[in-house]
Amino acid sequence: QASIIVTTRPSAVRRIPGKYVGRYAEICGFSDTNLQKLYFQMRLSQPGCCGENSVGSSSSEQENLVEMLSRNLERHNQIAAACFLPSYCWLVCTTLHFLYFTRTVPPSQTLTGIYTSFLRLNFSGEVLDSTDPTNISMMKYVAKTVGKLAYEGVMSRKTCFSEDDLQQCFEVKMKTESELNLLEVFRSDVFRFFLTPCVQPGKEHTFVFTIPAMQEYLAALYVVLGEKKTLAQRVGKELSEVIGKVSEDVAVVLSIISKVLPLRFLPVLFNLLKIFPRYFSRLSGRDRDAIAHTMAEEMFKEEDYYNDDVLDQINFSILGVEGPMRHPDEAPDDEVFELFPIFMGGILSRRNRAILEQLGCSIKNLAAFEIAKAMKKTVIRKSRKGLPPSELMDYLFFLHEFQNERFTAEAIRSLRTVNLSSVKMTPLKCSVLASVMGTTCHEVEELNLTSCNLDTRSLRILFPSFQSCHPHVSLCISLQLNSLGSDACKEIRDLLLHDKCVVSSLRLANNPVGKQGAQHLAEALAGNRSLTHLSLLHTALGDRGAEVIAQHLAKNQHLQELNLGYNSLTDTAALHVVEVAKKHATLDKVHLYFNDISEDGKRALHSLRMDRDGVRALVFLTAGTDVSDYWSNILNVVQKNLPFWDRERVRQHLALILQDLESSRRQTANPWRKAKFLRVESEVKKMLGKLQHGSL
């Protein structure tokens, strides 16, 4: 016969007369780490959470995620403290789903949307105190107070806050009695949801945000809602409202008097009263430009240019960083707040504004439009200066979060180079890149995806967006160092055979293409009409792979340069490729260095003449008794790729090249040529010396 009242608001319990309550119980969430692990295991192992392909490698990926998360819970007390609240466990799992199992283009979710939905799940329709006449919503109060603390922390690069910081931020000394009552309700009911005691040694008496990214979200909300105003803007807004109301009443009186007494000054005074509200409203409207300026400044901070991209940062904050842990006495790295401007853009999207409206945080359509308009002057202009790969990925992610197709199209049309080399391109990042580039007929001329951990699935996500290139653009794609095998070459073949293909240069160096992959690429060469440069340097072709390429090369009418260096080619395959190249209409340069070509084969290739044979084979650094015009090109290629090649084999090839240079130098009597030989020999000797000492 018990009556049970359940509430998430401890302050409400105090209003129930004591005679009606016999016992109180507080449910504190997952106090046991094992319960947290069990929740994660159940949630992340649900069938179908990976989308369509939730078998095989995806199930092992799920198990790996659970294992990494469990290890991080054991060694990183702060995330365990956050997951004490079950709703934060939901946020962690939803974020991991977003990071690891996004396959669609465009992605069905945004990170900002996840955080906005999270707040709606917890605070939808709630007011802070129903007895207070202001009737302020819970989230509006959080944005004004905790948002201010978050923003000041972002600006000062601070994540830990003392009690003094809290007192100063909440302006306790300047509060009226009703405001102090609201603050008391907030501290009782909501404070621990957003801020928690820091468990890091030496910082026991400070507070941190329960989830680090929540600090950046609330800081962004604080700015976009216009809570960050200068004194002039605040006074201007209030004066505008007051003078506007007064002017309406006075204007009526003056209009009546002016009909009876046509005094000359009355029309002047009448117009002045009209001007005042306009002037102050214009002053208060400048905060739109300020928001756009803040977003641009935070997005393009040069001191953050060489950090990991934000998606990797979120991943590390949840799963931890594999490797040796930092010593407790070691100074931490500077705090990075690169999510802050991205959240600002995400909050301005139509869907997130609609959800925030339900939470009492209204952002008008006109305000969002004016901010976007102001951003064009700053964000797009700064993006044209060229960004490092990780920052460019952040910029693309910002455009995805903003969810404004017109703005994104204008931003993408301003890009000519997309360099994402060494960015770990997860399926989510590929989906973001494909989605953003697919918004318009772009004019990107170079796409660098070198060493990006790409696989067949990644190419399948990316390639449709390349078909939205402007038809008059020549696109250069670099896919070097990505472990792309024969299956990936099928996707590349389909891209090159597409009727809208504008790829003019394709670099596939240092990928395990092999004979089967060469077959797919050869089929692409036979039917492609745009490709002029193809690099298959160090792609394990062998003689059979090169023969396949040579057989289909005759059907191609546009290729100008082909790189088959370092592919273990022997005389037969190398000479066959060159014979086909002689008859080719446009092919005039074939790279064949670092192959297993005999002395007889080298002499045959030496005898090629551009004016007679129409093709030049780049095999060595010499051209008879002179230095080859391409010696620096060959050595540059070797130097760039040395970390990924067999060093002993490279050393042997360099030794043979050095012998060839010395032999050619002895055969010439021309002192100018001898000097050129000596210069090239010194470069090769330097490279050999560094190779032997392991410094290259």
Automatic annotation (TrEMBL):
Listed transmembrane segments: 79-101
NLR family member X1 C-terminal domain residues: 627-688
Gene3D superfamilies with a match to the protein in the record: Ribonuclease Inhibitor (3.80.10.10)
N-terminal signal peptide: none
Top-rank taxon, per record: Eukaryota
Keywords per UniProt: Leucine-rich repeat, Membrane, Repeat, Transmembrane, Transmembrane helix
A Pfam family annotated for this UniProt entry: NLRX1_C
Protein's name in the database: NLRX1 protein
SUPFAM superfamilies membership: RNI-like (SSF52047)
